[in-house]
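pls design
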């Protein structure tokens, strides 16, 4: 179960588990979204690009980051919805890279409904070299304790 609204405190930091991005992830995401850009799917094309090889879909890493935050015990069963997101892509993520995120609570506020509140999270995604590859800020709607 994820954390309830009352369990988030401004300034808290959470480290997510790590995850290695594999070719199957990229192929599956391409199939789900119909995004077959050769930067993701064609090694020869991608080697001739500025990236020097294949890269993952940026939005795929966004989704993986929220999955990692769920695996860290922050969201499963308590987050009711993603309200807003702002995201930056700083470096490519390549097949074989291992990513993890540092999640920081920036703000929280109650809503008019007593069974939920809004928590603002910063999610900093790092690769195995501890380089920031993506960062984002998200507002999530979170259940309060004792409410279902």
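designed seq:
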């Amino acid at each position: 179960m994820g954390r309830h609204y009352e369990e988030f405190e401004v300034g808290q930091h959470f480290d997510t588990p790590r995850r290695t991005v594999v070719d199957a992830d990229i192929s599956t995401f391409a199939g789900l979204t119909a995004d077959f850009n050769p930067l993701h799917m064609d090694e020869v094309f991608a080697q001739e690009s500025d990236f020097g090889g294949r890269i993952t879909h940026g939005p795929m890493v966004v989704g993986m980051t929220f999955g990692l935050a769920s695996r860290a015990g922050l969201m499963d069963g308590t987050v009711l919805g993603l309200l807003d997101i702002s995201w930056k892509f700083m470096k490519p993520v390549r097949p074989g890279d291992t990513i993890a995120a540092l999640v920081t609570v920036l703000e929280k506020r109650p809503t008019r409904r007593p069974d939920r509140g809004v928590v603002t999270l910063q999610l900093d995604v790092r690769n195995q070299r501890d380089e920031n590859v993506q960062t984002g800020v998200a507002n999530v709607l979170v259940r309060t304790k004792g409410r279902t």
